[in-house]
Amino acid sequence: MVLEQNLSLVKKVNRLLNWGHWFSFFNMLLALVITASFWWAEPLPVTFLGWSYLVLTWLGHTAFICFMFFILTIFPLSLIFPYQRHIRGLAAALASIGLVLLIFDAYVYNQLGYHLGSASYDQTIDLLRQQIVTNLRNFLLIVAVVGSMLFAIELTISNFCWKKITRLGQSGIGKPALMLFFGSFMLSHVLHIYADAKLQWDITRQDNVLPFSYPATAKSLLARYQLVDLTQRAQRQAERLSLETSLPLTGELRCTLPAQQSTLLLFSQPLTESQINFFRQQQFRLHEQHFAPNNAPEALLNVLYGQFMVEASDTEALKQRPSWLSPSHSQAFSVVNRDPKLSALLPWASESTTFTPFSMVFDADPTQNWADYQQYAQIVIVPLHSNNTKFQLAPVTALTRWPALSQQLKQHNSQQLDWLPTLVAAAGCDGQQRWLSDNLLAPKALPKLNISQQDIISIRKDKMLILRQDGSYGVWSAGTLVPLNDKLDVPMLIDALKRLED
To answer: How many other C-beta atoms can be found within 10 angstroms of the C-beta atom of residue 250?
Structure first.
């Protein structure tokens, strides 16, 4: 009697496990449809090897996710609680929840560029909150309909596999499917090893596309955004970062100058304590979370052209007048150089004491010429560069007498790249600009981004992350430059790099 009961139990468990394998197989097919959507958020490969890896990793990794789901959920339940009706219903419910989570992860990845996880918890909650606030009824309706449909499909698959388990076993589908998925999984890893050794960025940039795949690393982020060509470890994406294609004001600029709202951006040498006290007596407010390069050529490139300095040769652009200083706008904009140290860098800059309503002035000691600047309604005084020799981008103290701007700067960091779009916006100008930075009067929610001598620098609140070209990185307090023992903040970097997207 005991033997018969044991044999009966073994048969039940064996039949449940066979059913579970086929149930997982059909769920793999469903999951393949969902995981295909992850590539909608990414540029497609450009090489045959890249396409081969995409197909192999799509088949192999999706099958791996489904198989692990079976091993971690249905398999132990079948051993502990071998009652087919309960297991089939419970498996359908678990599979439905898993697919809903996979769909949500695909949505988050398409919207934000990274997967669900502890590192992206805040951003995911914000995204979910936006959907609930703006479209609560539609959101609940979609979730209910999708969840119900998936549960109905899962129940259908569960019942079909149970009733047709013998016919499915005799169909001859099992072994070819196993070979296809297992072979794809193994070949994708072999191809990835080859790509990592040969520095094929068309493959390695796909590392983080699918959930639970290769962890996001500094090197894979560089490859993903094509900021380094891993075949040479030196070539950036020239089309996006070159001065020729990404100058912010190459299009027609239309300006409606506001009445009596003249604006002055006054760039000085690093300010002394006595100079800061002098301007505070003139009703200026301090802004200490402003970041400037540690050298004048790079700072000028940021300020005058709204452009990164990716290579040292980029400073050659300083010899040419910026496009926004066109003759048609000569009555509105001007750049005046009153700093002898910058004469060689800005041979085209005027030394006139006649200023236009919207001006950039470079003055080594603005306190001596303060009487010339009091005509302006809105003034910003900021050191052109920092004296920090360790960090390419370091905090400096800016001063503002501009109420609308001061209000925004209470909650936001700023950098030298931000001044040009802010000045243009203050002049009421509109055009076909593609800014790499912010108009500080209406800043974006994205972290700050700068690229300095092939290092990527991102700043959000009090965190500064530097990603080097070799894939190493460091995290510091943005205000004090004290090193932080933090891991690579992938969501922060991806959000910052979105500034490079068209």
So the answer is: 15
Name the region of 251 (left: φ>0; alpha: ψ -120 to 50; beta: rest).
Answer: beta
CA-based max dimension of the chain: 108
Q: Are 289 and 461 in contact (CB under 8 A)?
A: no
The residues pairing with 287 across neighbouring beta strands, listed in sequence order, are: 398
Long-range contacts of 319-325 (CB under 8 A, 24+ apart): 319/347, 319/348, 320/348, 321/348, 322/247, 322/249, 323/247, 323/249, 323/250, 324/248, 324/249, 324/253, 324/420, 324/424
CB hemisphere CA count around 433 (13 angstroms): 22
Strands 358-362 and 333-337: parallel
More confident residue, 432 or 426: 426
3-class state of residue 278 by DSSP: helix
Q: At what angle do helices 84-112 and 490-497 cross, to 10 degrees?
A: 40
Q: How far apart are CA 115 and CA 414, in angstroms?
A: 28
What pLDDT, on a 0 to 100 scale, did the predictor assign at position 99? Answer: 94
Q: Are 301 and 314 in contact (CB under 8 A)?
A: yes
Residue 267, SS3?
strand
Q: How far is CA 145 from CA 37, 127, 490, in A?
A: 19, 20, 33
d(CA 33, CA 40): 12
Q: Read off the pLDDT of residues 158-168 as tens digits, 9 standing for 90 and up.
A: 999 988 888 88
- Give one DSSP letter per residue of 279-318, joined into a string: HHHTT-EEEEEEEEESSHHHHHHHHHH---B-SGGGGGGG
Give pLDDT, residue 4. Answer: 42
Task: Give, to the nearest 10 degrees, the angle between helix 419-426 and helix 296-305.
Answer: 30
Dist CA 357 CA 331 (whole Å): 8
